[in-house]
């Protein structure tokens, strides 16, 4: 997330038809974080519901990216929500966290977090976009989607992030970051990464002439990534580069991202995994370290710089509730 410091976070996921892009909203229900109660007195007013709906619409707009880029994000978000459907509750973040900007309006962002129900392996789904105008006259645009699993399932999480610094330059992060040490748990390496042939998708993308491997400057991020992580820079020429970038997204990134998400559905999130009580403390500890690093290393430094301390503190405080295991 966030250019050079994504730390497997959401800022740092199947068909392309328009009908698949209709995002489903689960009916209000209870979770460990938020309780919903709808009565005749309507504690959740129509105005409040409309406000939250407005935040969701802003998120689904993906207003600053190209058509192919937007379609990919909408399809991935739709696939996740359709797959888990009633197992997710609607986003309940405050309106000024669902959409926020800095004082000058040169940086804007949208954030949606949906918690999983008690019967779901999903802890929460986090999607976002960030737009920041650059001093050079261009802009930085980041779109991301992450799904974090809870302690009933020890499978890897899912993360995708597209970081665009110009119409002809992009960084792609696509990974199923492990939640256990793959040296100590070689069966996980085989089950999640070898048997699923995930590496062939990385190899396919790296064969595209305009693609080069992307190496994060953070050793922690490199250590936290899976051995099949797709981390690449895509650069197209100035002459005709925008069209070529659209072609690469549409014909290569789009199908590969959806195939990786499908693998994650079938072999990770929806696979029957038995996590014994003795295993949970270590899993919880690792999840806690990973999430705290996201807030500490990544967002803690990026947010104040882009949005100012007041806005950054408000957003980080709202996110912290979800990132604490």
UniProtKB/TrEMBL annotation:
It is an enzyme of class 1 (oxidoreductase). One of its GO terms (molecular function) is red chlorophyll catabolite reductase activity. It comes from the Eukaryota. This is red chlorophyll catabolite reductase. Its main location: plastid. It catalyses: primary fluorescent chlorophyll catabolite + 2 oxidized [2Fe-2S]-[ferredoxin] = red chlorophyll catabolite + 2 reduced [2Fe-2S]-[ferredoxin] + 3 H(+). The keyword Endoplasmic reticulum does not apply. Keywords: Chlorophyll catabolism, Chloroplast, Oxidoreductase, Plastid, Transit peptide. Pathway: Porphyrin-containing compound metabolism; chlorophyll degradation. It is found in: Plastid, Chloroplast. Pfam families: RCC_reductase. GO terms for cellular component: chloroplast. One of its GO terms (biological process) is chlorophyll catabolic process. Its EC number is 1.3.7.12.
């Amino acid at each position: 997330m966030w250019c050079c410091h994504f730390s497997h976070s959401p800022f740092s996921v199947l068909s392309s038809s328009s009908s698949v892009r209709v995002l489903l909203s689960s009916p209000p229900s209870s979770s460990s974080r938020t309780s919903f109660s709808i009565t005749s007195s309507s504690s959740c007013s129509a105005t409040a519901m409309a406000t939250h709906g407005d935040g969701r619409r802003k998120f689904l707009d993906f207003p600053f990216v190209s058509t192919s880029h937007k379609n990919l994000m909408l399809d991935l978000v739709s696939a996740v929500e359709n797959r888990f459907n009633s197992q997710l509750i609607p986003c309940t973040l405050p309106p000024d966290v669902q959409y926020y900007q800095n004082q000058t309006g040169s940086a804007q962002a949208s954030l949606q977090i949906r918690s999983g129900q008690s019967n779901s392996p999903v802890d929460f789904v986090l999607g976002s976009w960030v737009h920041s105008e650059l001093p050079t006259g261009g802009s930085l645009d980041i779109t991301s989607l992450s799904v974090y699993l809870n302690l009933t399932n020890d499978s890897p999480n899912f993360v995708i992030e597209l970081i665009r610094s110009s119409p002809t330059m992009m960084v792609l992060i696509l990974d199923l970051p492990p939640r256990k040490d793959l040296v100590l748990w070689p069966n996980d390496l085989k089950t999640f990464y070898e048997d699923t042939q995930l590496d062939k998708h990385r190899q396919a993308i790296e064969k595209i002439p305009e693609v080069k491997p992307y190496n994060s400057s953070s050793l922690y991020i490199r250590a936290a990534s899976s051995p099949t992580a797709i981390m690449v820079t895509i650069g197209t020429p100035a002459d005709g580069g925008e069209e070529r970038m659209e072609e690469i997204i549409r014909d290569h990134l789009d199908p590969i991202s959806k195939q990786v998400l499908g693998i994650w559905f079938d072999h990770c999130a929806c696979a029957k995994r038995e996590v014994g009580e003795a295993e949970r403390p270590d899993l919880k500890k690792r999840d806690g370290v990973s999430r705290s690093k996201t807030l500490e290393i990544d967002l803690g430094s990026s947010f104040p710089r882009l949005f100012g301390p007041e806005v950054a503190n408000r957003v980080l405080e709202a996110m912290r509730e979800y990132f604490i295991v």
